[in-house]
Every structure is written in C-alpha cells, then in structure tokens.
Amino acid sequence: MTEASRPRGHLPLDAMDRRIACALQVDGRASWRFIADVLGESERTVTRRGTKLLGDRAVVIAARPRARGNTIVGAHCELGQSRIVARALTQRSDSFLVHILTGSPDCVVILDSPRTHLNNLVFEELPGVRGIVKTTTQPVLRPTHTISRWRPDVLTDNEVNALLGEHRVQNVDVASGRTEVDRVDDLLMKALALDGRRSIEELSRLCGLSDTTVRRRIEKLRRDGDVIIRAIVEPALLGLPVEAVLWVSARPTYVEAVADALGHSPSVRYVSVMVGDRQIMATVSMPSEEALYEFVTHGSWLENVNSVETAMVLETYKRGGAPTSMVN
Questions:
Q1: How far apart are CA 110 and CA 70, in angstroms?
Q2: Which pTM was predicted?
C-alpha cells in the first residue's frame, strides 16, 4: 500500500459519502447491498459512490493483525528535521501512526511491536534515526479505545450495530493467547492488508482452497479478533479537519475512569493508558479549533483530570498502518 488518502486539500465528502465511508469503517468487507439496506439507500447509489470512494482512495480498506503490544514514541528533532524523522518512522513496518506536532515532542509515533523488542528499539534503533535529538518511549499498559473502535458522529447506534453484526467481537484489540498463525491464515492476512475487500474467489485462488473454506477462515479470524478489517479515511474528509494529541494526567485511582470517559466521545479516535507521568494519551478529531477548545476546557471527561497538554497535528505521515499522501 502506497497511499491512504486523497491529495492534500481535497474537499470534504458530502453527507452521503460520509455515511458510506463510516459504514466501511465499521465493516470494511460489508457488501454494497448490505450497506445500502442498513443506510436505507438504493444499492445502485451506494455501489456507485462506494466504488468511487475506493477508486479515488478517499477510503482505503486494509486489514491488520491484532496488536502485539503498543509503544508510544515521542521524538524531539533537530531544527528543520521533523519531516525527515517522520518519513523515517513511517518506513518502519511496525509503525501504525506518525504525526508531526506543535510543541514538544515534534513527532509522535505509535508502534505495534512485542515487549521483547523494547530494548533494541530504545538502545539501537531510535538513536540511529537521523535528525532525532532525544526520544521518550512509553509502553502502552492498556489500549482502552483503539482506532478500529472510532465511530464518528455520522451513523446512528442502530446502524452501527447492524453493520457490526457477528463481527462485534473484533473491537477487542489487545494481545491474545494465540502465538502461531498457519500458512493459509498468514497468506490471507497479508493479502487483506493490501486490499481488505479482495473477493473470496481471488483469495481462494491465492490459497488454493475452496471458496467455502476461505470464507470460513476469514470469518473465524475476524470473530476471534485476530485480524481487524476497517476503512482508513482522513478525518478532514469527514468534516473534522482539526486534529490534536492530548497528554493527560490524573490521580492513579481515576486513570481508568478518565480513559473510559474519553473513549465514549465520537471526537476521540484513540485512547491508551501508558507508562509515564502523563498516564493517558488520546488523539482527537474536531470540526474546528473552537470545538477543540470546548473539549479540552469544558468536557465532562475532565472531572478527575489533573492536567492536559494539547498538541495540534501539523502533518500526518501514516494512519492505520498505511502511509498517507504526505509521504509522496
């Protein structure tokens, strides 16, 4: 995958396209007929618009395996080197999200790697990245609200529940006891990582198995939460052009409550409890700076918060594990 979004500056999607994009965000493999039924629209209209969204790469459907263990890295860069650092972090196969921010740190990246790899990351890999002055490395103790759970305030709860159906369990996005994946499952996951809407027939030819067997395997991978299939879409296309990263501190006994409260907001894309003085990190997408101000000064989630540091997202180089148009 080489690109996860339309060129910079593309106009936001209209109301219908937003609903289709958000339906794909809930279930990236849902058929156009099923999406049309849930949204109460004609199948012809949904098929035409949905196909165009995918063809324009306004929406990219991709699969990824269940997280092995997230680590949040803040990179402090030499003057003028932030973009070089961001591109280098984007090239890592284990990077999931790469932002350039206002303030400090200059870049933030979420890595999906096992804890056993932490020593190499801290002592060997990060110091070797050109342009980095220093880093803060904070393992995630608990991802309370992952990107796959993000539900922008576009669809109704009934529509989301209908789309989730039997895949409701895929929202469990933490390391499982499963340690091995057989050859066929590995082939399926790699193929779906490139195109999450590949047909059963194409996947069957790739694996050399019957359509029924491949369909059953994919359903099991999703049901068990071993693979997440979702849409990657730039928040700006959904009318949410203002993105920010929040670093939140709370009394230890209130950390879980604050993180859970953040996760209930449709403006919040990601929340995790991590090691460090600021125990919570959240990423948010807002329609305006005024809305962001209201959220960080008057939000109901602030009740048990000691402090909040807000950094605006200047550029995004990777989202959902896929490089964005910034990389080109």
A1: 7
A2: 0.86
